[in-house]
């Protein structure tokens, strides 16, 4: 098969690789950096170090971890590849060895028995003072937060029975617990899933296993103070297709999305499954419970929003049906009814919230849109928009940073990296979260474009 250069199809078009590791001391800053913004903004995303196979997706790229460090009135930037086992092997061979996304049958023979899936490219996540690069089909990879040096994979001191941990854990702001799930936990691809809870010190305190109704994609999950929610989406794994060199996932329009809900203090044997046709999601903004009512806020699409994957017949899916709108899914655990209420006008993805309110009733959410970074106010129904007309789809994930640990909800800053492709450069915007429509209070300029990172975190000093 021909090997295109270091690029692949991403969410919004062709994604070119960056391929160099960089340090920029004292980045150019325009405007005024808020004195309260002190710490490190970590991000990780896919960046193919070697060419990949035709038809592969950008989510198969090698993890590139970057950091903007806000210190002493200045900002320093650094990025480094996550030195995964697969990247080490490819560097040794000086060529591509691994094939398509989660398809070992497209690999070179010499890779047999190596950790071929873990590209560590999905979420820069901090917990109990440690920094991890997460990837949903693998163990977390620990990274030195000062140097970005790769320290190795981490699996709760070898206590974890699962082989996978989600790239979208939830941290309870009161207990500090790291709630996680392991999808295809034993890599049998039959729907075997685990619930995992790690305490604030990094000790595994719960691991329970269940089977999902079908072997579907489950990219994110949610907790409330009273419940745990497992979304299973109708992009399924069929190992016959995979063994023939096909895609790992394919969209099955005959299946409905299902949402499993269990009491948080209970057991996975108590999961109730709700079929919700036309409610397909990738990411969670937040969730909370009010007695027997459970709210889950997420970008919801009526069809396949994982457009890098075709349908089970091998056809591309309808792009219009894959466009997500921020919506509230409400589950009534007594009546069994489910409602979907879109937030008017809020088409977009990469949702976040003020994570001091994770799992609780909350007011503000943030997301990217086609030409904007948006704040939604669930209380008033208002949207506040920071327009980016020069950078369609150029905004990456917006991350909220509180002004102070005890500041009221939503008082603080939103940091968001924006690519300006026409000028081959990138800007990190710092917005006042309460005045997003006024534009950035500060802009940190990088003299090069950035590969599209997925998810990150801000660790305050
Ligand atoms: Fe994600």
Automatic annotation (TrEMBL):
Top-level taxon of the source organism: Bacteria
A Pfam match: RPE65
PANTHER family attached to this UniProt entry: BETA-CAROTENE DIOXYGENASE, CAROTENOID 9,10(9',10')-CLEAVAGE DIOXYGENASE 1
Cofactors, names only: Fe(2+)
Name of the protein in question: Dioxygenase
InterPro entries linked to this entry: Carotenoid_Oase
Keyword list, A-Z: Dioxygenase, Iron, Metal-binding, Oxidoreductase
Record-listed E.C. numbers: 1.13.11.-
Cofactor note: Binds 1 Fe(2+) ion per subunit.
Family to which this protein belongs: Belongs to the carotenoid oxygenase family.
